[in-house]
Structures are given as C-alpha cells and as structure tokens.
Amino acid sequence: MGIAIFPMFIQDDPSLIKQMARETILILDKEAHTQWTLKAFLETEKYIVLAVDTIERALQCFREFEVSALITEYWIDHANPVEIIRGLKRDFPELYVMMLTQENLEEIEYRRVMKAGVGDLFFKPLSTEKILLHLKKGLRLRKIFIQKKRLEQKLNQFRANRADRQVPLAVVSISNNES
User: Fold this and answer.
1) Are 48 and 75 in contact (CB under 8 A)?
2) What backbone phi and psi angles, to 5 degrees, belong to 9?
3) Nearest to 69 by CA among 120, 5, 115
4) Going from the N-terminus, what domains does the chain have, and what CATH number goes with each?
5) Whole-model pTM?
6) Please, what is the angle between helix 128-165 and helix 32-44, to 10°?
C-alpha cells in the first residue's frame, strides 16, 4: 500500500486543509483482510486511515504524518510489541494505541502490554462497532491530554513572565526609605 504525500498547493484550498485536520489512524497488521476491513470502515467515519504491514513502514508513517491513533496487531515481524509501544509512547505520549490479537495472553503479558501504553486490547475476530466506540473514546482522551499539555505550557510561561516582572519586596522597601 502506498502512502499519499500532499502537494504544496494544499494551503490554497480550504476543503483540503479541513480534510487534513481530520485525525489520522494508522493500522499495523499483517492480515490484509483486517487492514481492509478497518480501513474501509474507519474511512466511512471520516478518518484518514493509513494501513501498513511492517513495523518499518509504520515508523515511516510516524515520521511523515501526525498519527492520532495506532491500531496494531500484537505480534508483528517477530518483534517485542511491548518495547515498540513503549518507544512510540515515549516519542508520542499523546498517541492512542489499540491492540488486536488472536493470542490468548497470559495475565502477566496482558499487564505488560497495558502498562506499555496500550489503551484497549481486542481479540479477533473483531467488532468494528466496538473498535469505533473505543477509538472515539481514546481520541477524546488524546485531545484532553494535548489541551492539558498546552495549558501547562501557558501556565509555566505565565509564571516565568510574572517572575521576570516582579521586583523583590525588600528592594522596594529600601528604595522607599532612601527617598
């Protein structure tokens, strides 16, 4: 599957800008049927959907696009899914991650996966309606996380500006006594 690159003239077309403002969902799954099913369904819900079948291509998508959510298979390319998710969450803390699996995970592995940053775990065969409900919930939480981060940055900037403008009271008192 190819990855679309948007041309420079996109700034001149408001409908294209609005389209790009939609959230981008990345599907990482070896099964073409799962990719196609999720991609087709989520596109009807007006999401921009990228579907890939290797970790390397997924990482390329993260470099080229602002990915809002990742829907990934548990076992891809014989790689450790926990380490991959940890790395993505370290680099993109606002990323919502949903994992799909056919495997029956042991309790310890389930906890490791969830602690790594997976928001929801679904067993195949999957229900697209459940996926959509959880995806919407995860994207709402992502927006709240981003808003919180922006507000914290503004508050820290406000505090820094305020601290720069304040004159210590002792200096004001001394200068008033000298007059």
Assistant:
1) no
2) -70, 0
3) 120
4) 8-165 (3.40.50.2300)
5) 0.73
6) 70
